[in-house]
Design a protein that fits this description.
Two copies of one chain form a homodimer. Chain A has 14 helices and ten strands. Chain A is an alpha+beta fold and 362 residues long. In chain A, strand 1 and strand 2 form a beta hairpin. The radius of gyration of chain A is 27 Å and the shape is elongated. The relative contact order of chain A is 0.13. Chains A and B meet through strand 4, strand 5, strand 6, helix 11 and helix 12 of A and strand 4, strand 5, strand 6, helix 11 and helix 12 of B. The structure holds a DNA duplex (30 and 30 nucleotides).
Chain lengths: 362, 362
DNA sequence: AATTAGCACTCTAACCAATAGAGTGCTAAT
DNA sequence: ATTAGCACTCTATTGGTTAGAGTGCTAATT
């Protein structure tokens, strides 16, 4: 829609209509637009504009003589060109931040907490995909002897993600032996990217002096057993909160539509896929409307996502999933803010303290 | 219902009716009972027996001239006195066990996996409450120096539950210092019940020789900061799997009933409460039918639970939540079997190896 | 005394018709 | 270009009708 003089009024009508429909969930009539927006033009004029908008594919009628409802295309134009984002007030931000910061210090818990708060504040379903180890590097490793050949490998990354692995050996080991291996691993692997640990380790095996050779072998064996590359490439955490909000939306009174969306939400793999596809593009905040979603089950839904980071590495996406009739003007800024909160919090968790300043209020 | 000669036939009719209703989800007519069970009595006789059963409160009509449906009381009698449990075949058991054992070695993951398998096999919603630290005792403790005054406390229990806590100190500490504290803690606390750690620690503080006093102080500080008793009393893990199965049940075509149950499932606290109340009673497997549930939102639902153990300590309950019309005869043995699997698996995880024998197929 | 055949009765579910009301599109006048 | 006015369309609700499923009751049968 180009923005000529006469199109300005069309835009105004489309904006009003979209806004009213988002509020009321019912087809919008020319009458209602006139009343709510105190327009000085008549309903007949509004109707003829609506007819134009319909021809252009921005709105449709649910039946021949009904009011109009925005199409996906209508929402798209509304979001990209018409809508004014309604940012959060200082108080709201403060309150959200407080709610989020009651979480423990562990990254995993923070992720969960932020997802829940996002869902509660928005009254939509909150979803979140976090790549725990994406491009992270090793901070330190510790081997703890549990007896009977069982060893606990504790692994801490630079970003403060902690992971435990239980290793079963064929024979019991000496604690002192484990300490030596720990030391060896820490000396050689500190700061190494997780994806390169194995390579580096094999490097040591060739290069280093003989007295440590057996240690390196042990270590390689341990990391081999963990299939380290694979885990670090793929391990992610998925949250999904607020199904109850969906139940209250009038669009999901239709049980088939309800089944469609709940079917998606029940399947973590699908959620992972969807969010993953929003991880790559250069844009931080993304909106996918109705049929823009590849998944047919989401053709009645919209997705608003925003990426978050640790330091300057994108490590996840969070967002909201709901009916296409979504309060975009509020929710876009909200989702973005929540991703910022999470970036802050996670970077704050960073154990090297780089991003520590300014989080005293926690 | 006493089991006199004439009541035997009443029982048979009630059993048949219940079974048929569970299968078909539709009110059962005298005709259907006669056909399906090839009874030699006439439909008129069956009807008069049904009238008696209705007087006694075991079945009801949905309307004046409809077939009958079991009441909660009817189900109760069916389960307690009529139904024959249909145990799993050897192949089914084997297949389930295989599915469950693909989980990692960590207890938390096993809990999740078993819940998911239970839900998939039953086509009902699986729920699970696991008290991680119930009456557990300490296996070992390790303090890992992360620099900048940050210390990672890794805590391993006798049952193999592993927990990480991040501690922030005001000032950096020496690694050697942490090792001394670790050693001190391990020496004094190994095998001590988690709930008694604090007490024991304060004991040491008074009794021990002066040279270690400052260590004990440090340790107390650390455990104080963790509010150890509280965490260990209450920390539990809740799973909930299979909402999609509920969507397919005809009883939940009624959107209000659907909302009622989904509302419950969305709220982890409520699930915790419900399952917790099934943790105490002496019975292992429990069935709660319809209005027997305290929660009004579950008045159309039944809950089948079974407790599981680590060694001989009850540590959790798992079960199924679905419509009162549930395939009890299959699901009771299934739920019990899954709790046994979980007990086995968790006891297998037990790091002292007491229950290790016989799990080679994992 | 228990069982059963037969039949009247009741309720549901599906279908149709009628109506009020909301909202439109079109046309002719401004 | 705008608008008043009006005919038209579609929905949603109501009431009526009918077929069918299933019962309860009664009188006959074993």
């Amino acid at each position: 829609m180009d923005v000529s003089a006469s199109n300005k009024r069309r835009s105004r009508i489309l904006g009003a209509l979209t806004h009213l429909y988002i509020q009321s969930a019912r087809p919008v009539s020319s009458q209602l637009i006139k009343e709510e927006y105190s327009l000085s033009i008549s309903t007949a004029t509004i109707r003829s504009i609506m007819a134009e908008l319909e021809d252009a594919g921005y709105i449709v009628q649910t039946h021949t003589s009904s009011g109009r409802v925005p199409t996906d295309r209508g929402y798209r134009f509304y979001i990209d060109s018409l809508m004014k984002q309604k940012g959060l007030s200082f108080e709201e931000k403060q309150s959200i931040k407080n709610d989020c910061c009651t979480a423990s210090e562990l990254a995993e818990d923070t992720i969960n907490k932020v997802s829940r708060v996002l869902s509660e504040v928005s009254n939509e379903v909150g979803i979140n995909l976090f790549f725990k180890f994406k491009e992270d590097s090793l901070k330190c490793v510790e081997l703890i002897n549990l007896g009977s050949g069982k060893v606990l490998l504790v692994l801490v990354t630079e970003s403060g993600i902690i992971r435990n692995y239980l290793i079963k050996l064929d024979e019991p080991v000496e604690t002192s032996e484990l300490h030596r291996i720990s030391n060896f691993l820490n000396t050689h692997l500190q700061g190494v990217a997780l994806s390169e640990i194995k390579q580096k380790l094999y490097g040591c095996l060739e290069r280093d002096n003989l007295s440590l050779l057996y240690l390196a072998r042990e270590a390689c064996g341990i990391f081999d057993a963990l299939e380290v590359d694979n885990i670090f490439e793929n391990e992610c955490q998925i949250c999904q909160e607020g199904i109850n909000y969906i139940l209250k939306k009038p669009e999901f009174n239709d049980i088939d539509k309800l089944r469609a969306i709940l079917g998606v939400l029940e399947d973590k793999q699908t959620i992972e896929k969807i969010l993953k596809s929003n991880l790559r593009p250069y844009k931080k905040v993304m909106v996918t409307i109705g049929k823009e979603n590849k998944l047919e089950n989401l053709h009645n839904c919209s997705l608003v996502t925003s990426k978050y980071k640790i330091g300057n590495r994108v490590v996840g996406v969070l967002g909201l999933l709901g009916p296409t009739r979504m309060a975009y003007s509020k929710l876009l800024p909200l989702v973005e803010y929540m991703s910022d909160i999470l970036s802050e919090a996670l970077s704050g968790h960073s154990l090297d303290g780089r991003y520590e300043e300014g989080y005293d209020e926690a």
